[in-house]
Amino acid sequence: MPKLLEISKPFIVLVEGKDDAEMLYSLTHSMGMPKDEFQVLQYGGKQKFPSFLKQITNFPEFEMVTKLAIFRDADENSQSAFQSIEHHLKSSDLIPQDSVPTHSGEVKKSDSGFAVGIYITPDCSNKGALETLLLDSLTSEMKSEIETYVTQAEKSLSTDRARDKYKNSTKSRTYAYSALFENASFHDTFNKRLWDWSHPTFNQLKTFLQAF
Amino acid sequence: MPLVQSVHFSNYRNFTDFTMDGLQRINLIVGDSNVGKTGLLEGLVTLWGNEEQFKALPNTFRMSYGDYTTSLDSFWSWLHPQRNHSLTMILRSTDIDNLMRAVRYEDHVRYDRDSVERSLQKTPYKINILPIGIGNYEFQVDLFNQLANTKNGKESLVSSLQVIEPRLKGLDYLKLPSSNHAMVYADVDLDYKIPTTQFGHGFTRSMEMLSNLILSGSDIMIADEIENGIHYSALGSVWKAIIDYAVKNDVQVFATTHSRECIAAAHEAMSEQENYELNVIRLQNRKGEVVAINHNKEDIETAFDLGLPLR
């Protein structure tokens, strides 16, 4: 039986999936934050977030948690994504209510010392996702080359099935960037440190993490 | 809709102010060792059980000794929190008609039960306590014969078992020339009958549980560590049979389990029903109080998808 999830650190970071987790480990490593200072838990996408939050906050070990960071993609609307997370935090009687942030990117500390922060990717205000943020960190020349590849290559797709499956998306662009590095899938790009974490586009995210 | 909607215990064992609501047709109670799962079932028997079931409690779920009189100290005193007899213990439940049933327990005696039920002009609940550690063939045969002696009992058992063995046409207790003693045989539409001992463990265990349930004509089934003695591969069949019977006959189930496979099997079997009526209730100590945490279908699926312990 696979190992069941346990809370083992007082600082927990909730992310949607594996890519987000790898990105955070890579980014925090670049910031000099030791990996053992926090625990990243994947909640499996926005649909599962309410149930995941309810269950982990009910774990007996949750009593030792003092810092809770929550990441979610904005998708089509950053404000709605924030409000959804905020609603679930406010519905929980195990989260100190004076720690629930009022806007994305804020880290709020309760009188009891419990800190909660919500970060809606890419930048707490615009639509998009983690990939949008990552693409922003590439040089304009690189972005242009990727754009050309993704849009021009469509014209050479040879079957109807391939054309049906074609996606002109931010994800496709990040995967195109990943493909430049042999043996690197998208999440490998984080392990192999192929993103420039010193780029100013990541400053807001770093400030958010440092605020805990 | 299940019969009992909520349960409240005050000053009972380690349940000082305990509420369990949102109850479903099947209620699987989980939690760490010694959190109070068995104590919870004993509370339900104290609340709903008849006099015989109540007095048998010391030996029903626990390794105990003696009878009602000799076990006054070893069992009954411990129903009070920290054996503090000065606190009034109240156990109550609210049912689908919003009627409340309650008992007060003081110094080894239940009070109020009959009067409350008489005033409501409702018959007491009939509960079936599933014996633990069963699997004895003689016991199964005895149950079957008792069932065969009741009106439509055997037919009801066959119909319930068809959920897991669709070929089953009938069951009979026979002494065949090929055997030197009588056995229960199944008719699965072959030229010959097959002894039930030749069926899988899921079938025989389901047969045993269902025989118990049908014989008792109960509204509620109570089982401690329901997975005991059932091979994990048979759990699916057993739950399928129990859930199907419970839904068709309006029976409510309260069972404890330590097994994740058992929860998975119950979830899978319930997912095949038109209405999903499974609640996994985790008992947990929170700041010295036992609390009940409900897990609905979405929670159970999330727990299995993401490796969350339901415990």
From TrEMBL, chain A:
Provide an example Pfam family for this protein.
DUF3226
Checking InterPro entries in the record gives: DUF3226 (IPR024508)
Q: What name does UniProt use for this protein? A: DUF4435 domain-containing protein
UniProtKB/TrEMBL annotation, chain B:
**SUPFAM superfamilies according to UniProt:** P-loop containing nucleoside triphosphate hydrolases
**Top-level taxon of the source organism:** Bacteria
Query: Which protein, by its recorded name, is this?
Result: Uncharacterized protein
Which organism is this entry from?
Answer: Leucothrix pacifica
